[in-house]
Design a protein that fits this description.
This protein is an alpha/beta fold and about 400 residues long. The protein folds into 2 domains: about 270 residues, Rossmann fold (3-Layer(aba) Sandwich); about 90 residues, formyl-coa transferase, domain 3 (2-Layer Sandwich), CATH 3.30.1540. About 35% of the residues lie in helices and about 15% in strands. The chain has 16 helices and 13 strands. The strands form 4 sheets. A 6-stranded parallel sheet has the order 5-2-1-6-7-8, sandwiched between helices. Strands 9-10-11 form a 3-stranded antiparallel sheet, covered by helices on one side. A two-stranded antiparallel ribbon has the order 3-4. Helix 1 crosses helix 6. The longest helix is centred in the middle third of the chain and has 24 residues. The protein is elongated and about 85 Å long. One of its GO terms (molecular function) is CoA-transferase activity. This is Acetyl-CoA:oxalate CoA-transferase. It is an enzyme of class 2 (transferase). Keywords: Transferase. Its EC number is 2.8.3.19.
């Protein structure tokens, strides 16, 4: 691998599937780590079947590679192995001794029966950094429960502050439009792994990382959790409004909607000037953010009367010129066509056995060790023979025998 990759000296054994674990390992892979994705023979990661949509080949035929799987598995090599067999377990253990990091998201204790849990692996690889991702963690009364993003968004409080307010039409709790808890857990996992690596570099000691979706969800409530802890009052759903800042929400325009995100009193005064309602900035009810929060409903109603008078484009142009944070509410076609997205190269297309696999670029921009897009997300078992040969030294006869018994 290129010496220009920050983590090219590391190997990751990825026993995880679906989203949280693969998101963490994709981040490490983007930064240069050699990630070996271990999958079940025949079916692989569950998300391979989570479609439509599926990738099409150059002839327009559906390939069976789901868009969901493609979103979180680039820069990895796929190895199929049946870990329920002794031979399969030996392959994984041997790979662990040649790896720096193991990531898994089985239920608590799920890998112990195969001798692939942390306590078993650390006996043969004492420097290993072993990251376990579960719904509720390795301890506590819910430790045995399975955890799914939707469930965790509900139990962890996110849905209690997401959705329209109770007095509005369509009120009710709502999940976020992407599996945000899984994604955030993947980000926390990669950060924890890098911290453990830094410690190992100084001490030579590996460690176990216990990461729970539930913990992550509660931690990432941020100001909403702090609002409760300080006030003792659980926050309520406010739709697109902000609990601590006004005006900071969506507003109707003559041809759609836009977002206005006023962060201070100066920006509010500029907004009022552009909207031809400068007197509002001097009104004692609205002159400070504290008062605007108290008189939210009155102010928002007055502003909405104004914003309906012009198109989204006209408002955005005028407000941007005045230094008021604002923008359109884009769909994904508009996002990827946006000049900023184009300039930043947010779409990447990688060579794939089917032709080309599109994806979203990493947002990490390192000046000396930039992210490199080395591989498209792998087809199932694409690198099995390569890995068994190059990493473990198996010969053709051994590989053929494993394949004949459907161990790989």
């Amino acid at each position: 691998m290129s010496e220009q990759n920050a983590l090219s000296h590391l190997r990751v054994l990825d026993l995880s599937r679906v989203l949280a674990g693969p998101w963490a390992s994709q981040m490490l892979a983007d930064l240069g780590a050699d990630v070996i994705k271990v999958e079940r023979p025949g079916t692989g990661d569950d998300t391979r079947a989570w479609g439509p949509p599926f990738l099409h080949d150059i002839e327009g035929k559906e390939t069976g590679e789901s868009a969901y799987f493609l979103s979180t598995n680039r820069n990895k090599r796929s190895l199929t192995v049946d870990i329920t067999t002794e031979e399969g377990q030996k392959i994984v253990r041997d790979l662990a001794t040649r790896s720096d990091i193991v990531i898994e998201n089985f239920k608590r204790g799920g890998l112990a029966a195969y001798g692939l849990d942390y306590e078993s692996i650390r006996q043969i690889a004492p420097r290993i950094i072993y990251c376990s991702i579960t719904g509720f963690g390795q301890t506590g009364p819910y430790a045995e429960r399975a955890g799914y993003d939707f469930l965790i968004q509900a139990m962890g409080g996110l849905m209690s502050v997401t959705g329209r307010a109770d007095h509005e039409a369509g009120a009710g709790p709502m999940k976020v439009g992407v599996a945000l808890t899984d994604v955030l857990t993947g980000l926390y996992a990669s950060n924890a792994i890098l911290a453990a690596l830094a410690y190992r570099e100084r001490t030579g000691i590996g460690q176990h990382i216990d990461l729970a979706l539930f913990d992550v969800q509660v931690a990432t409530l941020v100001n909403q959790a702090s609002n409760y802890l300080v006030s003792g009052k659980p926050p309520v759903r406010l739709g697109n409004s902000h609990p601590n800042i006004v005006p900071y929400q969506d507003f109707p325009t003559a041809d759609g909607y836009m977002v206005i995100a006023v962060g201070n009193d100066t920006q509010f005064r500029r907004l009022c000037t552009v909207a031809d309602c400068a007197a509002l900035a001097d009104d004692p009810r609205f002159a400070s953010n504290r008062e605007r929060v108290h008189h939210r409903d009155t102010l928002v109603a007055l502003l909405r009367e104004r914003t309906r008078e012009r198109t989204t484009h006209d408002w955005v142009s005028a407000l941007e010129a005045a230094g008021v944070p604002c923008g359109p509410i884009n769909d994904l076609a508009e996002v990827f066509a946006d000049p900023q997205a184009v300039a930043r190269g947010l779409r990447v297309d990688l060579p794939h056995p089917a032709g080309t696999a599109p994806g979203v670029a990493s947002p990490i921009r390192l000046s000396h060790t930039p992210v490199q897009y080395r591989r498209a997300p792998p087809t199932l078992g694409q690198h099995t023979e390569e890995l068994l040969t190059d990493v473990l030294g198996y010969d053709e006869k051994q590989i053929a025998a494993l394949a004949a018994r459907r161990i790989i």
